[in-house]
Write a structure and sequence with these properties.
This protein is α+β, with helices and mostly antiparallel strands and 83 residues long. It has a single domain, classed as Herpes Virus-1. Helix content is 25%, strand content 10%. The protein contains three helices and three strands. The chain has a three-stranded antiparallel beta sheet with strand order 2-1-3. 28% of the residues are buried. It comes from Ancylobacter koreensis. This is DUF1272 domain-containing protein. InterPro entries: DUF1272.
């Protein structure tokens, strides 16, 4: 079951479980659509895998299986955009 991590690992933007702007790789590294496209060019910086849109968990299922509250943030990712 997907963790549905709460934020972008690159810019730390909130990505609630119902967000259609969340992108993930096969290891569930999570990024906002803007960082995935503009900074990472569709490739996960952690594993080199493809970033795809994260599915939205239906509300009834989310109540039984809540999203993760653990944030992962890598400020070095955001530095790529500046550089």
């Amino acid at each position: 079951m997907l963790e549905l991590r709460p934020g972008c690992e690159c810019c730390d933007r909130d990505l609630p479980p119902d967000s259609r702007d969340a992108m993930i790789c096969t290891f569930e590294c999570t990024f906002c659509a803007a960082c995935a496209a503009e900074v990472l060019h569709g490739v996960c910086p952690n594993c080199g895998g493809e970033l795809v849109r994260r599915p939205v968990r239906p509300p009834a299922a989310l109540a039984r299986h809540p999203a993760s509250t653990t944030r992962v943030f890598n400020p070095d990712c955001a530095a790529r955009k500046a550089g």
